[in-house]
Amino acid sequence: SSNSAENTIQTYVTSTKDGVTWTPLTPILRPGYWGWSSLHLPQRRQDLVYVAAYHTGQSHTETSSIVLWGGTSFTSLLPIGTIYDGSSLDAEHGPHYSPAEPVLFRTMTGDLGCCVRSESTMDLGVGLPPYQAAQWRWRDTRSQIHPSATLATPQGTLLAGRRVPEPGRGQQG
User: Can you give the chain as a three-state secondary structure string?
Assistant: First the structure.
């Protein structure tokens, strides 16, 4: 059943100092929020950790949304807010529009950027502190790159990449 406990998404974090011994898995974010990428962003007073997560709809008729979480550590994360709302884009993109897989990056100015996979393209957003929804500007890149990693260069170029499996070989873990 879609309401059963085994279908609830929960994001966990673990860490290591030596690559051998790991801390116990610790749940972060609320259930139903799929933490997809994180970024450590140095600040003047205190370094902050940001996690971009997508919140999946509770049923097949709901769209997903991208929520930004922030805190001083992975275990102190609080929701900053929805930075990309799939339901508000339904009219433009159709009834099954579901943004997902947000990948955070640091812009040249030190602010947050985010690539979001949407049905057939990648949308690119840049946010300004305090990173609430109103501080984000988004555009459709019309590219089918759904990056699993990004890198912003000092020259202002954003490199986005993803491994594409060879035809006939299927997805590899």
Answer: CCCCHHHCCCEEECCECCCCCECCCEEECCCCEEEEEEEEECCCCCCEEEEEEEECCCCCCCCCEEEEEEECCHHHCEEEEEEEEHHHHHHHHCCCCCCEEEEEEECCCCCEEEEEEECCEEEEEEECCCCCHHHEEEEECCCCCCCCEEEECCCCCEEEECCCCCCCCCCCC
Q: How far apart are CA 14 and CA 16, in angstroms?
A: 7
> Phi and psi for 75 in degrees, rounded to 5?
-90, 0
What's the pLDDT score for residue 96?
Answer: 46
pLDDT tens per residue, range 102-144 = 999 888 888 899 999 877 788 889 999 889 888 899 888 888 7
For 74-102, write each residue's pLDDT tens digit. Answer: 999 999 999 988 765 545 555 446 788 89
Partners of 158 in beta bridges: 152
Indicate if the alpha-carbon torsion angle 2, 90, 151, 105 is positive or negative: negative
Residues 6 or more apart whose CB falls under 8 angstroms from that of 110 comprise: 41
